Amino acid sequence: MTDQTLAKRARLGVSDWIAASMRLLVTEGPAALKISRLTDTLGVTKGSFYWHFADIAALKSALAEHCEAQQRAAAEHVQALSDLPAAERLDAMVDFISEPRRWSAEAAVRSWSHSDRTLCASIAELDRRLHKAIHQAMLDLGFDGDDAQARASLLLYSGLGYLQAAENTGPPDSETLHRFVALSTAR
């Protein structure tokens, strides 16, 4: 369903504006988050926007809260994998993060976070929790503390590098990511 079809079908709610904002953030970047751009995308008037938000800052704040909630949910998902055997845990993490829509959204949110302190802190917390989970998996695989730390850092920071490169090269496929994990856990 297109944004304009959604707007014609029913009165827009806050969640519709957030969803449209997220789509613009992913496809065009933070600079596209403007009232006129959003109303054009949704095929509605500015009055519809102001019915829900005082100004663009209020929308961006609501979008940032939405993104932070998504970051917390991702961190909780990773934490919930802790009962799996270490190798399965790492594979499940790769499967979770390699979902194509997640790549584009994550890259867009991380780009936007450079100008939003709260969002930046949320991403830093997610990265900390991911590193901790990967580190624990490496310990569970039998690597000593220093090796586990180095391998966890290698995986996390390589993943972030893949995320940054994906804008130009496209995201790596799941098989490539699984191969990278296998190389990182080899003895």
From TrEMBL:
Lineage top rank: taxon: Bacteria
Keywords in alphabetical order: DNA-binding
Domain HTH tetR-type: start-end pairs: 18-59
Entry keyword annotation includes Transmembrane helix: no
SUPFAM superfamilies xref list: Homeodomain-like
Keyword Membrane among UniProt keywords: no
Pfam family, one: TetR_N
A molecular function GO annotation: DNA binding
Name recorded for this polypeptide: Putative TetR family transcriptional regulator
